[in-house]
Amino acid sequence: MSITSSLLQVTLPTDTTSVDAITEGATKTISVIELLSDPGTLIVVIPLLIMSIIGVYVFFERFFTINKVGKLNNELLSGVSSYIKQGNVDGANALCTSDKTVYSVLIQKGIKRIGKPLQDIKTEMENVAQIQLNKLEKGFPILATISGVAPMLGFLGTVLGMIVTFHSMKVAGQAVQVDQLSGGIMQAMVTTVAGLVVGIIAFLAYNILSSKAQRVAYQMEEVNQAFMDIFKNPPKLINYMAIKSSSKVSVEFNMASLTDIVFLLLIFFIVLSTLINPYGEKVNLPNSSSRTTEKPTVSITIKEDLSYYIGSTKIAPETVEQQLIDKFKGQEVKQAILYVDESVPTGFTINLFAVARKNGIEMVIATEPS
Questions:
Q1: Residue 350 CB coordination number (10 Å)
Q2: Structural domain includes residue 109
Q3: Helix axes of 118-136 and 178-229: crossing angle, nearest 10 degrees
Q4: Is residue 268 in some structural domain?
């Protein structure tokens, strides 16, 4: 049965010397490695890591390959033109063999077809250009797939984190604590960020490589026209080659799905904020007619068997003071709520208030409204 609590606030004088001593210390931080290595996130992080390694390899391998074979040497065309005008076809062919680019392969195919109708030469060169472009785009579908799958994996981790959070709420019941839910919430957020980061990087890599491959395709068209000009072909017969990208994968983010996920998370956190009980174990509280809406950040509970809890964590009575000091390290506002079973002798409550006063902590007692 739920208990509607009210707080009987008791303000005690503080010891400023103790406050100064306690506030020393820095806020604890967590590294990215620690976030990603959490057991709850590994089920999503490991596939994302594998995809990241594959994506990085594909990007750099394709980037340097396209830069190498897609570099147009202007002297190649002038040399081939000079050899052909002199009738030295073998010299032109040898010049193309020495040049390790897609343009030399294209021109070499045209040279081998000299003597045939110009339209046949154009068709052969167009076929070779398409084959070379397909080779350049090898691996592009992998990047396209990663850019689409990675965010979906991140959203899968988000849903799994929400499941973990709701399971923790079910197990804890009304005494659910923020620290019990933070693991699932962190898992949801970390996997979402990791998936989006991998997806965005893969998306950018795909578009960078696609633009470079398209530039090579345009230059092959220019090389084709320059080669045909060698034969003084009439302009009406000189057409650009119909070179098309072989990558048919549509690389785009589904914003509708992303919006649905964000909206779902918003509802999730709104519901969660109303269900979290920042206090501790259930006890039979004393009655009071007074009430305050102030919510201290730390709860202390003394149960009827004289066991002590901070939040939902059981602690030894002799460690209460040190536990409170650790809880409030680096905090300017130090407020705690005390839950004491009505059967606990008053002396235990007084001793706890003395500890709070010594360490500059403002403590209030929780009561049931009468």
A1: 9
A2: no
A3: 160
A4: yes
The pLDDT confidence band at residue 192, using thresholds 50, 70 and 90, is: confident
179 & 223 share domain = yes
SS3 category, 218: helix
Question: Which residues have C-beta within 8 Å of that of residue 15, sequence separation ≥ 6?
Answer: 357, 358, 359, 360
Tell me, yes or no, whether 39 lies in a domain.
yes
- Establish if 182 belongs to a structural domain: yes
- Asked if 133 and 217 touch (Cβ cutoff 8 Å), the reply is yes
* Burial of 194: CB neighbours in 10 Å, binned 0-12, 13-18, 19+: buried
Give the DSSP H or E segment for 113: none
Task: Look up the domain containing 295 and give its range.
Answer: 6-28+279-369
pTM of the full structure: 0.59
Q: Are 340 and 195 within one domain?
A: no
**Strand bridging mode 313-315 / 308-310:** antiparallel
Looking at residue 51, what is its pLDDT? Answer: 94
pLDDT digits (tens, 9 = 90+) for 245-258: 555 545 555 555 56
Q: Band of the pLDDT at 290, cuts 50, 70, 90?
A: low
Which of the two residues, 295 and 152, has the higher pLDDT score? Answer: 152
CA distance 68 to 242: 24
Max Cα-Cα span within the chain: 114
Grade residue 93 by pLDDT with cuts at 50, 70 and 90: confident
User: Which residue reads 């007074």 in tokens?
Assistant: 290
Same domain, 42 and 54: yes
The CA radius of gyration of the chain, in Å to the nearest whole number, is 36
Query: H-type helices in 99-176, by residue range?
Result: 102-112, 118-136, 140-172
Q: Are 195 and 267 members of one domain?
A: yes
Q: How many helices (H) and strands (E) does the chain have?
A: 12, 7
On whether both 340 and 209 belong to a single domain, the answer is no
Are 70 and 102 within 8 A, CB to CB?
A: yes
Question: Domain check: are 249 and 317 in the same one?
Answer: no
Total domains in the fold of the chain: 2
Highest mean pLDDT among 22-36, 223-237, 239-253: 223-237
Specify whether 268 is located in the same domain as 172. yes
Same domain, 184 and 215: yes
